[in-house]
Amino acid sequence: MGCWGVPGPLLPLPLLLLLLRPPPAPACPAACRCSPAEAHCSERGLRQVPWSLSSNTSTLWLRYNFITVLGPRSFPPLPALRLLSLPHNRLERIHGRALLGLGALRELDLSNNRLSALSADTFGPLTSLATLNLGSNRLGELEPLVLSALPQLHALFLRDNPWVCSCDILPLWRWLSRHREKVRDKSSLLCRVPEQLNKYPIMAFGDESFRQCQETSLSSEDYFTIFIIGPASFIASIFFCTFMGSVVVFYHNLRRDSHCWRTP
User: Fold this and answer.
1) Coil, strand or helix: which one is 193?
2) Sign of the four-CA dihedral 20, 26, 29, 31
3) Phi, psi (5° rounding) for residue 84?
4) For residues 66, 69, 71 and 77, what is the CA-based torsion angle, rounded to 10 degrees?
């Protein structure tokens, strides 16, 4: 007759229930709706980026909110984020460290905001970015270094900005001319000012359009001459004229005194 096996030690019920409980769902901010790898936070009246996002988030929708500034480290670490959608906010400024931790980002939509200036380090952390939409902002000019910091950029959208077509736009025009294949809406880049160039296509300019700018451009040596040597020369000329005037007056008085002594 076989022997019954001796039962092993039984696990306490609370520990057993803990082991059988399903794993917790990824974090999702209270103002958002989340599905696997996506966070839908659009039209929630948000004034800043929700912080309690899952690190597995690959797509973040933040359209139609009231975000005005992206300050330093506005985002939690999101190493898996590939798409960030921020159009139709009230975004005015982006700090140079705002996008740290988003190195895997491939697509960034900042259209329909109030951006009027971008610093050269704005997009520095986004070394994988392929698509950038800056359309419908308030950009009058754009420093090419902002775009040169994006080695993987393949698609750029810049339409509906109030471009100022003065000599200052020459560096941007050169960059756009060298990277025409990346500018997807190049035919829609229109001057806003000056008035005589309103709605004139930026890409219709040629080298001859900027000849006067190149001829009148000043080098650093020119500025040194104007702002340092110029005033110094002016001051020196005042002292020289004062000295010469004093010499003439002294000589005139000397002659008059000598004439008085000779008079009987």
Assistant:
1) strand
2) negative
3) -125, 120
4) 40
Q: Give 80's Cβ-side CA count (13 Å radius).
A: 11
What stretch of H or E contains 34?
A: strand 33-35
User: Distance (Å, rounded) from C-alpha 206 to C-alpha 146?
Assistant: 23
Q: Give the right CATH number for 26-228 from 1.25.40.10, 3.80.10.10, 3.40.50.720, 3.50.50.60.
A: 3.80.10.10
Tens-digit pLDDT profile for residues 221-261: 543 444 455 455 557 667 666 767 666 666 666 665 555 44
Contact status, residue 113 vs residue 90, Cβ threshold 8 Å: yes
pLDDT in tens, 133-182: 999 999 999 999 999 999 999 999 999 999 999 999 999 999 999 999 99
User: Which residue's structure tokens are 């300050």?
Assistant: 71
Written as one letter, the residue type at 255 is R
Domain residue extents for the chain: 26-228
In 3-state terms, the chain is what percent helix, strand and coil (to 5)? 35, 10, 55
What tokens appear for 95 in the block? 């700090």
Asked if 60 contacts 78 with a C-beta cutoff of 8 angstroms, the reply is: yes
What length is written for the chain? 264
| Structure tokens given for 211 | 């000849």
**Farthest CA pair distance, the chain:** 167
Measured CA to CA, the distance from residue 76 to residue 92 in angstroms comes to 21
